[in-house]
Sequence to fold (449 residues):
Amino acid sequence: MVKTNQPVTKLIAAGKQKRGQVSFAELGTFHPTKRNAMQMIQTTEKKLIPELVPIRNERMSKSAFAFYRGSLELMDYDLNQQPATGIQVVICGDAHISNFGFFASPERQLLFDLNDFDESDIGNWEWDLKRLVVSVILSSDHLKLAPHKLQKLLLKTVASYRLGLKKEFDESVLQRYYPANDVTDVVRSLPKKKNDPDLINDIVAKAQKRTSEQVVQKLTTVDTNGNRRFIDKPPISEHVSNQTYQSLTTHFNAYKQTVHADVALLLSQYSVTDAIRHTVGVGSVGTDSFLILLTGLDGSHLVLQVKEAVVPKLAEYSDENSPAMQLKDISQGERIVDCQRILQSVSDPLLGYYTANDKDYYVRQYRDMKESVNPEELDEQQFKTYAKVCAWILSVAHAQSPTAAMIRGYVGHAAKFDEAIVNWSLAYAKQVEKDYQNFLNTQKISTNK
Fold:
């Protein structure tokens, strides 16, 4: 685990000294690697549920950004070949711009934060930031920004991260532990306090409608026996086999042992009454993903999502002595849950995990007041605001690790750091575009056979 007993002032000084080991210029220079991108993707696909691979490929084919989301193994490999600061924190591991979103706290307050932790791990902090900035480039394609406008947007995005980190370490340890990530405070915290109220208000309105009751009504129906059941929509949503259903039912009790006592008591009033395999996202397509319907003693219902937790791709390409490798042999469900609780301002109280049939899983509530933002549907001003908010939130998440004070020292007050990250990201975006075209060509050849 990331820990230190050094005072913040010494950590900041140590981070500043790191510039002598890895300069901004080095950090900002992309070094192309020798790899076979299609072979690496195919290796990943061999580990997935075969009938879901075509769905995964279809989703990845939609745009360079979709491909980027689904081919994390390529970037993780490439990042491991680049100069790195060596400053290790708890990272998201997949901090692209669509892995942020809105959700409700236990007090029903709407928050904005990172919302995907399948690839979370301990790693170099700049990997998260680079992944975010490259995603801003790729997902802004619909805006057709002139090069100088894109450059300006990217510089402001990185500056938002840098200034957010400065603000975090101007506060006490306890203040950093309780970040203000509710919608209003997040926007108010932006460096220039710019906001698009229509964007925020629309998202709030949509999220507030996505209650547990609304999810149940949308995804289920009542059968001829009067029992509520999930609606089949193959191949995306299909009822599971009897064997899988029994496994989900049996391990529901194991999952309850990993939540807090009050939540376990709540869940003791529910039993599993139905389950489907439900395919979601882009990068996780092909791994186990289920929805289970819980029925309470009073006849009410609750939907939980059960997702397979696999070894993060970062660990596959890391050095044997790296922190990422140290977490490789623990329960991957536990890793995801622990990292989520560290990185998020407030986490889902129903978050838990278990192991079954040599696979690790984590469990969370499904869609309760959760809403994501599709960056490709935002206009220019909305997109700029959203990118800066995401960068700010990433700095808040990183600041939960005490070693993040070294990041504060490394980035300093220099716009040269911002330029370095932007330069690397622009160069890497071109690599993604090249890999994407290669992927499309491979798909065409495969289809014609």
